[in-house]
């Protein structure tokens, strides 16, 4: 079938040639959700109109997310013989300028450019792929994201796509599994279970039907890696699943995608159709007689459905309740009681490369225990938020300060949260740690699905813990007592602490309860729910104590523990705050320093934002005395 | 309404694994899930209506009463949270005079919290249907609503 | 096939295929159950029956016994997990036990006592009982959500025992609730009011609309349809105040329907006839038994004499006992007529 | 029932429920069947109404009222054509198969489909499930028997069961679910015009002699009148006095106007009951009886299981158990053999006089119920009949082919609707007991005449509209409820409610053999008021 595939590949390249007309300029606009959210579509529209109106020869295409979300909207231009130049923060207006000056004339507008890729770019803009953002990255899973047009299968094939499948179809199933085992590939869903072993345990059982399920129910609040892959490189996942189908002997696969990912779903649909058209999916794939079909199932919004048995329950039409242990493995009795292979988007998407480039190539990346790369959604109080892919084993420091460009507004770093609601927070003195499955767990956090949220001094750790508990509380399925009641109980206590009702012994009680919830819960959600609390207590216990003992929120975040106060010395009675206050709590006229009526104040913080930097007369106070003073009506 | 449901359901075989797709299809058609619709789905598949209701109420995607014409979704994903998404939510609740999960009396808007719309770089983010408003501060709440008024 | 296992150091032999919970039961070792019910498939949600099986903490109600398995039901760890779980349940459970119909017959009380709830620890707990108002729509039994522990026994009962499945879990997480379609009152649902759920509810979440404190029980047979369910008639003073299914009766094994379980008001109904009555010129006047029976006997002899025995008709009853039916037909056949019948055909 | 609840519920691979609203009239058997179906047993339901149990059915046959025989003949035709019958069983244990088969082969399936209104495919499907499941149990009630063709219907059912070897087998059989707690016992005790206790014919010389001697009187050897005929006879002055024990014919009997006239005419009417019933109005003497909770005695359930009822409390006031009343009356009448102290002694006499009950004693019943026949003290009882032989001369089952006969009354211009009656889960018979329960009344207290949505639409009727229902025999006013469970032209009512008494309308035409009136089919008209 290799021959058969070569034909397809050749044809693909030719079509591409025709489509691309590489003799004219190519324009790429980052049109993943993040891009669109920032206005990519209107940019595309303006340019298209302009090109047509002024009949300028150029190709424009919508691509996925290259990961530099901080720089959205991203517009790249490749002129024949020129390197790819990236423009950032593009608006319809600047887009027109760029067309006028760079496409029509030859001014590459260094003022608007972010930089260029590859060799020999103009001297007055910096090179991106060797710059801070990319030099520490290694793009394997994301290699096509933002580079190719995800809605054009030819581009995927041109970039080496479906070779892995073609090769796999010539291999024995056991051999594919042994390659995976050699490569040491571990599931990218969070727990990091060895993929090879999982596939093997699904190959063994005899059954009239087996299923392959791609878990794209990315529910972690603050993570969007899976979505970016589906939006930017859908074929890589389809190819991976098809290989899985062939390996375990399944003819049916499901994409379990959050309904909140409309664009991803749209692109998947298109990709599936294209793959079928090319006989890379569907019946008698590449003439091997192997049939594999893919169906998209839209998750209806339940974080717990990321858990394999819950996910299966919900496809079967039930409440997404995990099956309590002891129960047969999903790989033996999964969907409709049939052997079912369930992997994460990133796991499937990397499989083709592992097969085409070989186990050793994969092992050469990352660490021994955790080979390969890790994809993170790097967000929070950081200068360069975005989607990054780094080799396992890289130091957290590097990610935050080099790739991420350090903390926003030069504030002080406090902690980095990984693993979302199941993970934990690591403090400054843990930044030397290497990022891999096992190290993070040892330190009290985890890789999780790949959210990495940077937290600075102006963030309250108790509040962060409460935030995650609130999330797991809302998302707990309600089946088992420890999780259903436990998350609620922990949340209540954290609310109390944040609102000044904390009690002596609460911290110990939280620790004890956390332990019981971990031991007692049915599924991963409950078994990890206490982590954010336990890790923040481990590293930031003093903040908890400040809240409980002194009713003080050191980060000045917890509403009930702060008061807004106007410093008479600094106040110039400009009246900005007075006008902005939505509840008319601020009084004072011209030349008279303003004051805040604490009884009226709702602590919305608008006055604080309104007061110009140069005065910064509005201040936030915390602690028993200040609160008491404010309460006693005396203006803080 | 029953006709609407019937029409939608006619596109399904009536297998148990179609429960959620059916619920989604009906909600797309009607805007929420009226009781009769749930009963019809149960009958169409031949499973207890209580079970279908149990499944529907489990998932946050489904609504059981009429919604506002435009839905204001305040992202409270981690990034938005640490960047003050909650204050924005407070401001919107104040402006609209309703709490999250409610509709304005004139059914122009419904307000809800969502977990990560995936625009973390723009945090804090608010989505009104598909329009995204990024890097918001509380006082912009009014402006967001004015821009999104269905009549405009 | 028999397996050898050890529970708390005690070696026992048990049937293959049973659960650790059942094995312990056979060995007379108490494992606190909450969501487990012998009539029903297991659920495994309450996490109270957790034990240490070969070093792993598992739910006894689901874990099958394995040969050579070593089970410990009372390790430090097990105790802690159980205790916290019960505390957590109590945190959102109605405090008022005296005001609860199941006071002293409540499974949650039993379990709390066993795990050793103590007030010092309870003080650390934040109590918050969701204020859902009770459902008193059904005339026979009501639902108090503040006493529901979401064990799902009622749900499994409605599906497995009665086959109606009128109720199921609805909503999610802490807001999970046993509900009918549309979160309506029970009366507006497919519920058939058989009360099987009421019988199995481990707490006071389902309770009789009219409390029934039974003084003595008498085994008998239901008086309604032909199924002949075994019942236990609950008496207090001179009144029938409750009817329960007799689990030992092979016909119904304890099950009853709405009529059999709740339809007994007629027994002590004020309109019951209490004296014989004879109609004199169109109006009924009370009479003694002798007057009434003499009147009847004379009349019957009279008719027989005038028109022959076949001028008498005897309509017996399918609600009377065999003995009574026998005597009834005996009377008329002895008088010389076969005009004996009853409502077999209706 | 030929079988016991237990063996059917636990072992039947398929249930064929016809003319029985099982989940409402025999709820606890309903539970067992729903459980069995949940565990994989197949279910065929045939009824003019989409009753609750139909929800769980693999095949639901919504036949026109009164066309049972046609449906069953149709099924038989399929079974014979496709040779789904149990040849072995037929060879060894039956007689007359050939004639039967011949007659069945003469039946046109499509014609049966037209008569019943059930598509031929569905009849075929049902036949295949029933014949293809071993064992398969038939359950029926009044929907089969309350027809002028009732006996034929039962024979047709027996035919199916015999054809498929489902007789005398665990999990099989032909099982009428008896409607009342001791209707079986009343029959067993000879509260029937044609037989003595234990089904010994009054016409049999030996039996007649045995009982005449035992009762010290000459008992006529020709059968007496069934209740349904007594009232007609009363109108013709042939009957002068009626003694009514625990019955309420003024509500339960068909064609009530006639019944009332008859009662008016009688010289003596005795009513013995718990309450002052509608019938009591017509009585000369009313005697206060005891309820089941106030007396000892035995009852026979639908599976022939004799069980002990026990006294829990005293009867109110001067009310007495029927046992006491009858003993007293017997003596007052100067009859011999009424000196009983307690019901147990009566049981001894029963055992002596009827072989089927010979082995029954109160002592044994303390241990639990026993299914008759129980020929001696050590016999365990007989939960399943005909395991070895049938009660025929040859001991073999006889095939009795039947012809479909339409109901006595069919719709016409004046009375275009068919009324069929039944029961509700929440009430019992004429409601004497259940309608005195506030709770049950709360759940269901007003008769709703059910009509098809189509008819409702055509006639512009909405729920709770009042209508007048008229038949050749009387009229009733009731509220309607349009439902999708009924086919056009069919009306359903219960007979629990005296104020909207369906039996004002019903037809008293009888089945020639069993003398059961055709309560399930009569022609009526319906108009809005």
Key descriptive features of the protein:
heterotetramer; A: about 625 residues; alpha/beta; Glutaredoxin; Rossmann fold; Ubiquitin-like (UB roll); 25 helices; C: about 350 residues; alpha+beta; Alpha-Beta Plaits; N-terminal domain of TfIIb; 4 domains; three-stranded antiparallel sheet
The global form of chain D is globular
Helical segment count of chain B? 7
Residue-averaged pLDDT of chain D: 93
Q: Which stretches of chain B of 5+ consecutive residues score pLDDT under 50? A: none
Provide the spatial order of strands within the biggest beta sheet of chain D: 16-20-17-19-18-21
Describe the structure.
The complex is a heterotetramer of chains A (about 625), B (about 150), C (about 350) and D (about 525). With about 625 residues, chain A is α/β, with parallel strands linked by helices. In chain A, about 40% of the residues lie in helices and about 15% in strands. Chain A has five domains: about 15-135, Glutaredoxin (3-Layer(aba) Sandwich); about 160-365, NADH-ubiquinone oxidoreductase 51kDa subunit (Rossmann fold); about 375-455, Ubiquitin-like (UB roll) (Roll); about 460-550, NADH-ubiquinone oxidoreductase 51kDa subunit, iron-sulphur binding domain (de novo design (two linked rop proteins)); about 560-630, Alpha-Beta Plaits (2-Layer Sandwich), CATH 3.30.70.20. The mean pLDDT of chain A is about 90. With about 150 residues, chain B is α+β, with helices and mostly antiparallel strands. The relative contact order of chain B is 0.13. Chain B is elongated. Chain B has two domains: about 1-60, Arc Repressor Mutant, subunit A (Orthogonal Bundle); about 70-150, Glutaredoxin. A four-stranded mixed beta sheet of chain B has the order 2-1-3-4, with helices on one face. In chain D, the strands form six sheets. In chain D, strands 16-20-17-19-18-21 form a six-stranded mixed barrel. A five-stranded parallel beta sheet of chain D has the order 3-2-1-5-6. In chain D, strands 9-10-11 form a three-stranded parallel beta sheet, with no helix packed on it. The two termini of chain D are about 45 Å apart.
Any chance you could write out the topology, listing elements then pairs?
The complex is a heterotetramer of chains A (636), B (152), C (346) and D (529).
Chain A lengths: L1 H19 L5 E5 L2 H6 L1 H14 L5 E5 L11 E4 L5 E4 L4 H13 L8 E5 L14 H4 L17 H6 L4 H6 L4 H11 L11 H9 L7 E6 L8 H8 L1 H15 L3 E7 L3 H16 L15 E7 L8 H8 L24 E5 H13 L1 H5 L9 E8 L5 E6 L4 H8 L9 E6 L5 E4 L9 H6 L8 E6 L4 H15 L5 H18 L7 H15 L3 H5 L2 H20 L11 E5 L9 H5 L5 E2 L7 E2 L9 H5 L7 E5 L1 H8 L5
Parallel strand pairs in A: 1-2, 6-7, 6-9, 7-8, 10-14
Antiparallel strand pairs in A: 1-3, 3-4, 4-5, 10-11, 12-13, 12-14, 15-18, 16-17
Helix pairs in contact in A: 3-4, 8-9, 10-11, 10-12, 11-14, 18-19, 18-22, 19-20, 20-22
Chain C lengths: L1 E6 L2 E6 L4 H7 L23 E4 L2 E4 L10 E3 L3 H16 L15 H9 L3 H6 L16 E3 L9 H8 L7 E3 L6 E3 L16 H5 L5 E3 L7 E6 L8 E7 L2 E7 L12 H5 L14 E4 L2 E4 L2 H19 L4 E4 L6 H14 L4 E2 L5
Parallel strand pairs in C: 1-5, 15-16
Antiparallel strand pairs in C: 1-2, 3-4, 3-5, 6-9, 7-8, 10-11, 11-12, 13-14
Helix pairs in contact in C: 2-3
Chain D lengths: L4 H7 L2 E5 L3 H4 L1 H12 L3 E5 L12 E3 L6 H14 L5 H7 E2 L1 H9 L3 H8 L3 H13 L3 E5 L1 H4 L4 H14 L10 E3 L6 H6 L6 E2 L3 E2 L3 H11 L11 H9 L5 E5 L3 H4 L3 H10 L2 E6 L11 E4 L8 E4 L4 E5 L12 H11 L10 H11 L8 H5 L3 E2 L25 E2 L18 E6 L15 H6 L4 E5 H7 L6 E5 L4 E9 L6 E5 L27 E7 L1
Parallel strand pairs in D: 1-2, 1-5, 2-3, 4-15, 5-6, 9-10, 10-11, 16-20, 17-19
Antiparallel strand pairs in D: 7-8, 12-13, 13-14, 16-21, 17-20, 18-19, 18-21
